[in-house]
Design brief:
Number of domains of chain B: 1
Number of helices of chain A: 7
Number of helices of chain B: 6
Radius of gyration of chain A: 18 Å
Largest sheet of chain B: none
Structural class of chain A: mainly alpha
Largest interface: A-B, 117 and 105 residues
Strand content of chain B: under 5%
Number of strands of chain A: 1
Distance between the termini of chain B: 14 Å
Shape of chain A: globular
Helix content of chain A: 55-70%
Helix content of chain B: over 70%
Shape of chain B: globular
Oligomer: heterodimer
Largest sheet of chain A: none
Number of domains of chain A: 1
Distance between the termini of chain A: 41 Å
Number of strands of chain B: 1
Order of helices and strands of chain B: EHHHHHH
Radius of gyration of chain B: 16 Å
Strand content of chain A: under 5%
């Protein structure tokens, strides 16, 4: 059952990215372009997503277990450190360069666009490189 | 500053669907969706790609995107996004929605950071 949920949630998420046009890098770059021709639309993506999700997080956080899994399993990491700031900054730079973040990049593979495929390959290389560097970052 | 191409209704509706996916995944599977962290969940990733195809099929609307055609830029950007989201522990969905939705200060700071750097990058680039 949890596998079906994964697939269904992926589909709903992908449709959400399409309906909101967040799948389009030009739309994202328009949102980040606040100092000239600004398209504030994507703020409403976040508002919509938070209005729907936030109440449920707070309603369910005291539940013992989810419906199809043994227990809730998510990060409780509260650390605000250099890693968080450096990582988020690198991500922001890549996001601002191409207008793509992980979700829309993967969803746009549906359009058989060679350029978004190139981005996704580079992104997965990045995931792998970050994993390789993990031991040294932990050692500090 | 000029406001252009503003589509708040479709943005809100799309965002609500994204929120719905996050809620269903949380309530049923007990996990929070963050795309940079869920990349190893093959079925979720498959769904993410099937979603736009279904949308196109049922609405008969073309999905138009405009993306840079510089492979150099895409490679650099992809690497930065891949490395950055892993080091920072999340992306627009993981920190921006799942984390902020739980009022996690860590995620709020991450989201503000990548928004500011994204805005500055676009400013410098143009």
């Amino acid at each position: 059952m949890s596998k079906i949920i994964s697939l269904v949630c992926g589909i709903i998420f992908g449709i959400g990215l399409t309906v909101s046009e967040m799948i389009d890098p030009a739309k994202v770059l328009g949102f980040l372009n606040i100092f000239s021709d600004w398209d504030p639309s994507l703020a409403f993506v976040m508002i919509g997503a938070l209005i729907i999700s936030s109440p449920f997080f707070h309603l369910f956080k005291n539940n013992k277990k989810p419906i199809f899994a043994k227990s809730f399993n998510y990060t409780t990491n509260k650390e605000i450190n250099k890693k968080l700031i450096i990582g988020s900054s690198l991500f922001g730079a890549g996001w601002g360069l191409a207008g793509l973040c992980p979700g829309p990049a993967i969803a746009s593979l549906a359009l058989l666009n060679i350029n978004s495929a190139a981005f996704v390959v580079a992104m997965f290389v990045g995931f792998y490189l970050a994993k390789l560097s993990e031991p040294t970052t932990h050692a500090r | 500053m000029n406001i252009v191409n503003f589509t708040p209704i479709s943005a809100f509706l799309g965002g609500s669907l994204i929120g719905l996916a996050v809620v269903i995944f949380f309530v049923f599977n007990g996990r929070l969706i963050g795309i940079s962290g869920i990349a190893s969940n093959f079925l979720f990733i498959a769904g993410l790609i099937i979603g736009p195809i279904l949308y196109k099929f049922f609405t008969s609307q073309e999905i138009n995107i405009s993306i840079s055609n510089s492979f150099y830029l895409l490679a650099v950007a992809g690497l930065l996004v891949g490395v950055g989201t892993r080091i920072g522990g999340g992306c627009t969905s993981g920190h921006g929605i799942s984390g902020m939705g739980r009022f996690s200060l860590r995620s709020i700071i991450a989201t503000i950071t990548f928004m500011i750097v994204g805005i500055l990058t676009v400013l410098v680039k143009t």
